[in-house]
Amino acid sequence: MSRKVNIDNTNLPETQVIFATNNDSLQRLFDRSEEMIKKNITPFLNKKVLVEGSYYPNVWLETQPMGGEMVAKRNIEVALNNQLIFMEHQREDGRLPGMISIVDGKTHPDYAWFQGYCFPVPAFNMYYWIKKDQGYLQTLYEVLEAFDNYLWKTRDSNGDGCLETWCVWDTGEDHCTRLDGAPDSWEGDTAPHGLGQVPYASMDVMGFSCNGRDVLALISKELGNSKECYWLEKAAEVRAKIQSYLWHPEKMACYDRDCNNEFMDVLVHNNLRVMYYGGFTQEMADQFIANHMLNPKEFWTPMPLPSIAVNDPLFRNIPSNNWSGQPQSLTYQRAIQALENYGHVAEITLLGRIYLSVMEKASFFPQQFDPFTAEPSEAKDGYGPSILSVLEYVARLYGVSISCDEVFWGGLQDGKYERTYTQRWDQDRYTLESRNGFFYGYINDIQVFRASHGVRIVTDLQGRIKAIIGIEQEPVTTHLTIEDQSYDFTVKPNEVYAIENQRIIQIKQVAFDYTPTGSTAS
Question: Residue 129 and residue 110: Cα distance in Å, rounded?
Fold first, then answer.
């Protein structure tokens, strides 16, 4: 099937990022990242797309819609194509291809595995990047609805209300020890049996549905089709099932169940994936982060975020493409949305500082790292999730990020160094300057705020401040000036403040359980 996407892509906005700092090491890393990401842009017949890079010359559903949307800062045409190529190859039954390649001069979609689903949010964000094309949004609605219908028609084979994974590549966990005996791929819509412990009741696949339904609610609100409440309720049903069936309250983590409906007692980073998909409650996310993600005996290793907790019997420190242990650049790429979904913005700072510090010393863009030494595992250069992780953490910590109708201004102090970061989008320029203990936000050369370091400022596209968020690991005294009005207040990590009637008020507080030696959890 070839689905037609109704969109006017003849006059797409132009974008550009300009970053300058006197931190020579960071500047070199950023410049090399900009150079290398361009090398991953390649023609797929009549489309220029961003491929995964390194050993992977194709587009996968778990990486390339997300990676494409991250490239929208620099190339909207390519970013949009990374969504359209999957939308256009949706089968009539709603199934999306897990991978698309070029074979014998023709586009070849593979439907024998899912390969994750980092698609709904990036595809929705593209609606904003392309200036709200209604034809595109309506088609995206139809694509997401059809895929959600496909999931529930085929992937609950035992009727227990929990979606299943049927093969290793459904979740993109190549060579993972916890999936021993499972087939790599699986053709057809009948569940496999007698191969390892599949089918598994899957936190990942439940996350696919939850994320798709949440985005369908957002699209419904934008289209005004009266289905917003319906999709919010349907997403809540999935979230409730994840909590009641896959969440282990005593262990404060999610675990898949095997074909006998028994918990698979392996502590996996996939909990972060479910957070990326929005499948946890706030309490679940807080508990997993405090007790596991920040635990140095499990996931907070010198290079954090191994795929399986390092104290788990199934952990393996294998340096090639293997999801049994070593931290993956793709996990760092996904962790940004996972943590932002639950207000854990200060933890993004922790991860970003570590990732950028390691990459400043690296000579190539790797897929994996040794969790104990933080050494990159030898591989072919040019791995896209590594390149994009660098560019995204720089934007989140030190620059400007646009998300739908909001602008995130990263006010992290970078030692004694100064910097300027400009995001150009169509006719508008969003510029952050950092100097002399303050950072300044400008829209089209007009200053919209000045603030002391240690916070993220969130504004609308016109520069009106919506939130001030603590992003350091300690409380910071914040001096904020907007036009002729000044404010002085203290912001703790993950605290969120807003301005109402010219007064600073706290609107949210999310836990921050990090200590320099690891989590405060026992």
Answer: 28
Q: Nearest 5 degrees, angle CA 124-CA 125-CA 126?
A: 90
Q: How far apart are CA 33 and CA 388, in angstroms?
A: 8
Contact of 439 with 459, CB cutoff 8 Å: no
Q: 448 with 454: CB under 8 angstroms?
A: no
What radius of gyration do the chain's Cα atoms show?
A: 22
Give residue 518's pLDDT band: very low, low, confident or very high (50, 70, 90): low
Query: In the chain, what are the helix, strand and coil shares in percent, each to the nearest 5?
Result: 35, 25, 40
**Alpha-carbon dihedral 218, 222, 227, 228, rounded to 10 degrees:** 40
Closest CA to 384 of 28, 107, 82, 41: 41
Per-residue b/e over 463-489, b at no fewer than 16 CB within 10 Å?
Answer: bebebbbbbbbeebebebebeeeebee
> 165: which 2 tokens?
């994974």
User: Helix 134-154 to helix 203-223 angle, to the nearest 10 degrees?
Assistant: 150
Neighbouring CB atoms inside 10 A of 9's CB total 14
CA distance linking residue 234 with residue 134, whole number of Å: 24
- The answer to whether 82 touches 136, Cβ cutoff 8 Å, is no
Contact 482, 448 (CB under 8 A): yes
The first and second tokens of residue 456, run together, are 């993220």
pLDDT digits (tens, 9 = 90+) for 213-270: 999 999 999 999 999 999 999 999 999 999 999 999 999 999 999 999 999 999 999 9
**Going by C-beta distance under 8 Å and a sequence separation of 6 or more, which residues neighbour residue 182?**
166, 167, 168, 192, 195, 196, 197, 198, 200
The DSSP code sequence of 289-319 is IIIIIT-TTTT-SSS---SB-TTSTT-B---
Nearest to 171 by CA among 297, 104, 284, 268: 268
Please give the Cα distance from 14 to 187 (Å, whole number).
41
* Whole-prediction pTM: 0.98
Sign of CA dihedral 185, 190, 195, 197: positive
Query: How many Å apart are CA 123 and CA 111, to the nearest integer?
Result: 20
pLDDT of residue 7: 85
Residue 1: predicted pLDDT:
55
Q: Indicate the Cα dihedral angle 191, 193, 197, 201, nearest 10°.
A: 30
Q: CB of 64 within 8 A of CB of 74?
A: no
> In this structure, what DSSP letter does residue 245 have?
I
Residues 6+ apart with CB under 8 A from 342: 275, 280, 282, 285, 286, 289, 510
Which amino acid is located at 256 in the chain?
D
User: For residues 430 and 443, is the Cβ–Cβ distance under 8 A?
Assistant: yes
